[in-house]
Amino acid sequence: MSIQNKTIVQLHEELVNKTTTATKIVEEVLMMIKTDKKDNFLLAFDETKMKSVAQQIDQQGVDRQNLLAGIPYFAKDNFSTKGLTTTGGSAILKNYIPPFNATVINLLNNQQALMSGKSNLDELGMGGTGTSSAFGTVPNPLNKKHLVGGSSSGSAYGVAKGIVPFALGSDTGDSIRRPASFAGIVGYKPTYGAISRYGMLPYSPSLDHPGVLAKTIEDSAIVADVLVEFDPADFTSLAVEKKGFYQNLNNFDKQLTFGYLTNVHNFLPPNLKKKYDELYALLKKNGVMVKPLEFSQPLLEALSPVYMMISFSEAVSSNANLAGINFGTRVEGDRWEAVMKNTRTTNFGSVVKRRFLIGSLNLQKENQEIYLHKAKKVRRLICEEINQVFQECDLLIIPPSQTVAPLIGNGQEFDDNQNNQTEYIDDILTLGNFSGIPSITIPFVVDHNKMPIGINVNAAACEDLKMFQGAKYLETMIKQLESQVLDHE
Ligand code: GLN
Q1: The pTM of the whole model exceeds 0.90
Q2: 3-state SS, residue 93
Q3: CATH superfamily of 1-252+397-489
Q4: 150 C-alpha to center of ligand 1: Å?
Q5: Domains of the chain: which residue ranges?
Q6: Nearest atom within ligand 1 for CA of residue 307
Q7: pLDDT for 185-195, tens place per residue?
Q8: Ligand 1 within 6 A of CB of 151
């Protein structure tokens, strides 16, 4: 029987009951990887190692307690893997083989999870489309004319296609939670610092969050149970109390209040807004409070510019080592300055170059106060407003996307280039990165062509368990909607 589309829970059951083996799982994963190779979703995998780890697991047998033993997963190619290339989706790192593992990889190795390959991403995590990797575009496996989104594009592909039940991703603005919406899967970004960033290539360290893409909320909780762990090697690591996310998933407290933002809700496409209204009505009918809340409009409109100011500045600074001297595929020149210039000019793609240019401009002494410091002050105000929101509600619902995944080649590749009044709705997930609150996207509705749109749930910082429980409860409500299909516009 095929393992495709099986969840961690199902595969674990089969491994324990010996109706399958880790070796068989690896064989099937390898077959699927090879079949879909042209979709560029995977950049590297170590067939020999996968087989030998599987063999070891089969010899020992799988313990009923260890839910991840023998479970295959992909890691976004910005997580360092010892002995296996880690490119960040960039030509500049195409030959880079790290001498160490990211903490998350070690944690999963300790559970005997099967690292089955490195998934493609928008170059250095910059982008939201899956089109800006140096190693090709990753399409949406549900319909290849559409984008899958990014930057965790290969991870979203692998999970949505059912090759692996989960994958590691990273989220600086929305890079786990928006592709999850486009691919009809679950995308979890933890509280900032709850999962170690050690060994993850930086995009913008004050906004970067490692996280999980998976088919189900249960599976996300299982992986989170392993990954949420204090790490002394990460100086921003936070000791979040471990509360058994999986075990306690169904203990939703109906006293909790859901909230949503009116200045987002009122501007949604009418057919999507209708579905949100139906869901809120159903929650209320079940005795759960739902509160409309207003977020400061100027702060919402500041989301995109503040995101660009902070993330581009941090990006250029934290990637200064990619210059062909210590790191990076060197392109020679007559002086060291020329080496750096040639290396960077040849190896970076246009999105990265543009962002580095703007970042450098922000970081010039005379611009720091007017651009960067101002942006940081506004970020502080955004965080205060978010804290205010969680005085009013326990679980904040926001739309991770207003539409299904856009078509490839529709001009949407340049998603940081929009200029319309409600642009902030497309960048609304950055709220979670600015403030570090836990945030999860789960499937919500589909259009007439079965393309999905997700829904996103947030809780106050360190309330990851509450967030999981809220999402699980919401899922049961969504399943009770009269229809999960959007009306024609
Ligand atoms: N789409 C956003 C961007 O282009 C988010 C990227 C991310 O979260 N890594 O920067």
Answers
A1: yes
A2: helix
A3: Amidase signature (AS) domain (3.90.1300.10)
A4: 7
A5: 1-252+397-489
A6: 10
A7: 999 999 999 99
A8: yes
